[in-house]
## 1
Amino acid sequence: MISSVHNSAVEPVKQTRGGRLLTLLSTKTTGNTAGYLGTLTLSPGEAFLKHYHPYSEESFYVVKGEVTIEGDENTLVASAGTAVFIPKYEPHRLQNTGSEETTLVFFCAPLAPSPTEGHVMLEEEASANA
């Protein structure tokens, strides 16, 4: 059966990695078993902490604003209309370096064995907005 989820139907993910994260399509919301899709919103200066995904590749599309993606080997700036691919095991940190709110739509696949195994954090909360 085809299903949909409106962003008003889900609660923001309770997390301390930075930004406001909504998981829209997931095993919990739709029974999806291929991956998960959601949105990340960052205020100017705000960062989503450095991490990597040991099970998933991550793709995202910048809907609004500008984000700087810092990897171990390169850094790039993506503005609205840009799609970004991050391979699994690639450490990355996302920071809104623009002057307006940034919104990304992301998709991670395949799924990790559990949600807690999906992210390996490499940075602590205190340095998120340094």
Note: DSSP finds one helix and ten strands in the chain.
## 2
Amino acid sequence: MSNKVLMKGNEALAEAAILAGCRHFFGYPITPQTELAAYMAKKMPKIGGVYLQAESEVAAINMVLGASSAGVRVMTSSSSPGISLKSEGISYLIGSDLPALIINVQRGGPGLGGIQPGQADYYQATRGIGHGDARLLVFAPSTVQEMVDLVFKAFELGDKYRMPAMILADGMLGQMMEPVELPDAAAATSERKTWATDGHGGKRKKNITNSLYLDPYLLEKTIHERRLRYDELNAGYQMAEEFYTDDADIIVTAYGASARVSRSAVVMAREIGIKAGLLRPISLWPFPASVIQRLSASAKVFLTVEMSMGQMVDDVRLAVNGVKPVDFFGRTGGVIPTPAEILTAIKNLA
């Protein structure tokens, strides 16, 4: 039976991972996600799990690779500068076809930036997480409850498609507290992976974890095979929430914390007679382009709101494909936009 508790976002991510069958965590502290690692440090020894604070983010992600190759559910967490350090290891995970859960509780950047919430890692997560023809699943929660739910989804799809998954949160979501329904841990068992390097006693062909292909034709074949999985994901797992979009002239697109603020602005716009609606991408990759394409047939204009100088707006423009204009409003550097600011941007378009 599920139980409802009040939890901070970072701690909810950790508890959800444990309930989803994760018993291996490797990380390094960085604000604003340190509570997640601290929660794991406290809980893992009590349940027979492994918690290890590595000497660096680089070491942590390579420990994740080793654990994943053995077939266990494993995760790491960090914030923006730390994810940059992990990017090489994430590329190796992708190249080795290994699942893992990576949490990014975003903060302002570039460089060390600040410790306030940000959303300027969208390009990194969806475009440049690692060299080569690399993709990973990217999910963007906007509530603490959704943080819990998406942890389960990330592990499930990561295992199914043998690829890492990232939950792209931010400092606002990580630090806020909300009531959540925690699922039953009994429903979170994972099957033994037939590809795992977990020993065989001579009873099967040995498994090898590898991302090096010296034969270019073999590498090309492997990349094409991986692309088929990406295509299947793109066709079947685009996730988004719609709010007042049925008759909307102005569609606001926003994810994560920005979507929470944008939702309030849409309600305020409706109260003064402006037909605004909200399209909230939940999966950032695969991006819900099909939903935007459908809405572009009836909407007059799109407004993308982000805590950045404008990154997701490029994907919105690609999906709209020039059929309707796409405008942008953003705050950056750790500044959270207000409903009043977004309402002003909506009024300007109306």
Note: The chain has twelve helices and 14 strands.
